[in-house]
Amino acid sequence: METSVGNNEGNSLSGRIGTLEEAVNDSNSGLAATKAIADAATTALNGKQNKIEVSGILKGDGNGNISAATPGSDFLTSQDISGKANTIDV
Predict the structure, then answer these.
(1) How much is the pTM?
(2) How far apart are CA 62 and CA 66, in angstroms?
(3) What would the pLDDT profile of 59-77 be if each residue is shown by its tens digit?
């Protein structure tokens, strides 16, 4: 079996190197685009609200901070209203 390197662009060594260079350049462009997207996402997320670490009913302080609301103080509990459903205080 005889193997030879052809002279046309598709089979020549220089043609294959050109294709490899194009592939590397395309890959680098893709990596640069991916990095640009990641950088844009990071920039967009800077200064955003942190994860909320409290649970239950939340209350705000008017300055962007939140905390857990206190039963009986910040909202009525079932004990606060039991027996009052059928009465009117005058």
Answers:
(1) 0.37
(2) 9
(3) 999 998 899 999 989 988 8
